[in-house]
Amino acid sequence: MNTSDKEILSEAAEDSGSPEAEATRVREILKTAQTLAAKKRLSAARLAVAQQKKEPQKGKVITLDPLQARRTLATILQKHPESTQEFTLAARKGKELSDSDVLSMLEDLRELGIYDPEADTETNK
Questions:
Q1: Which value, to the nearest 10 degrees, does the dihedral of the CA atoms of residues 102, 103, 104, 108 take?
Q2: Lowest-pLDDT range, 1-5, 59-63, 104-108?
Q3: How far is the first Cα of the chain from the last one, in angstroms, to the nearest whole number?
Q4: Which one-letter DSSP state was computed for residue 96?
Q5: What is residue 102's three-state secondary structure?
């Protein structure tokens, strides 16, 4: 910690020849890593899109008005009390939940195969 910048640069020159050349080499390594990470994210996104095309129902977003969403959640939790084990006491009673919390819980239940928004829409017509 007490080493001066001049001493560090002198040591770097001894080890690699030129601190500027070493900095350039490290920047190239970081740039390559950044490019590879971006390609990996792109590949994962493409895979997710392909999966979505195979199973379009799986990625459907539930769109219910907040009141209907709360009723639906309450009905599901009454019919499937075993599913409440994962939810907090407040969630089970439907209190202190934001609208987005309710919709998120319905999405989770849909992913678990407990809730089918299509069937729910048909019964509410």
A1: 100
A2: 59-63
A3: 73
A4: S
A5: helix
**For residues 113 and 5, what is the distance between their CA atoms, to the nearest angstrom?**
62
Q: Please give the structure tokens belonging to residue 88.
A: 């907090």
| Amino acid making up residue 34 | Q
48-71 per-position pLDDT tens digit: 888 878 876 555 556 678 888 888
Structure tokens at 108: 């989770």
Q: Which amino acid, one-letter code, is at 6?
A: K
Q: How many other CB atoms sit within 10 Å of the CB of residue 30?
A: 10
* pLDDT greater than 70 at residue 84: no
- Are the CB atoms for 56 and 41 separated by under 8 Å? no
pLDDT > 70 in the chain, percent: 78
Count of CB atoms within 10 A of residue 114's CB?
Answer: 15
Q: What 3-state DSSP class applies to 50?
A: helix
What is the rounded distance in angstroms from the CA atom of residue 119 to the CA atom of residue 41? 35
Q: How many residues does the chain have?
A: 125
